[in-house]
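Sample entry (387 residues):
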Amino acid sequence: MFPRGDEDSPNPAGLAFYRALIDECLASGMIPMVTITQYEPPLYLAQEYGGWSNRKTIDFYLKFCETIMREFRGKVRYWIPFVEVNLTLTAFGEATSAGILPPEGPFPRETNSPERIQARYQAMHHIFVANAKVVKLAREIDPENHVGCMLAGPASYPLTCSPEDNLANLQSLQRDCWFCSDVAVRGEYPGYMKRHMAEEGISITVEPEDADLLRAGTVDFIGFSYYSSSCISAEGQSGVEGNNLAGVPNPYLKKSEWGWLVDPIGIRIACNLVWDRYQLPMYIVENGLGAVDVVTEDGRIEDDYRIDYLRAHIEQLKEALADGVDLRGYMTWGCVDLIAESTGQMSKRYGFVHVDFDDAGHGSGKRTRKKSFFWYRDVIRSRGENI
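Predicted structure, serialized as tokens:
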């Protein structure tokens, strides 16, 4: 809708596309929950302004938010300003979330230099301010609007029962997860992060009005993605894969084809951790299994492994509800096969609907409903009773 990011007015074709999409959702009885930006800062803003490391990006983003919130007033009432906002501080999120371009030069490039880390924290602060301003804007446009904070969920355990591993896991959760939700929910920087930034020599520019903005713009709900979990060791983190998690492999868990540890009980634990910390309504915004799907000669896709994965997680969400967690919704990733953001592959499929394209973009584009499609349709119709 704003391809460059700094246009004075939106692209009418972009608005028309999303208007049609949202109207179709409403006509089908669905309540839209819109993620405003999902790893897509405009390249122009990254090139010309340095992405979110530049405070000007806040104003560009607010114009975008105001445009869509006024355009879809009364049709969309649930808004997530930033996807998996806590990944902004990672090397992965530096470009995809913060819009900070990689350094020039041959590979491997230095992405964890003090200057790069400093830029990430400055970008993170600007995102915090933007999020708070979006909350205020959303309520002014429509008092029925709800704005949330969305995390790559808290999903780690200490590798052993040693105090050192337990402390390392606590600090990992604080810095890599709770930092962002603490600011979004409580409206101020937590003490543990102030200490960490001081000890690491990280100093960011904060405007005098920012503290009041953060306090006034706290969110209405918490959303998080959950795919996998990891273990944290005081001796260092390496060897685990899964939604850009830090950590080491858990010897008690099996892996997916892409090395992501399958841990259904972890989603119940994550729900309880978030509920105990914030006492806010909660949504699972992403959950799913990336796997290779085989099309049989008669055109069927028998993806029982996907059904088994989702069933096990839904069973644990029922347990979380019984625990007293205020879980309002569950959304899978995703409905239709698309290129996996984590690997850039089409062959790593998540959807209920198969799309005939390969990793090189070759194929007919034909869509075929998988076995999981019909299973999940029954799950929805029964409101989770038939799984």
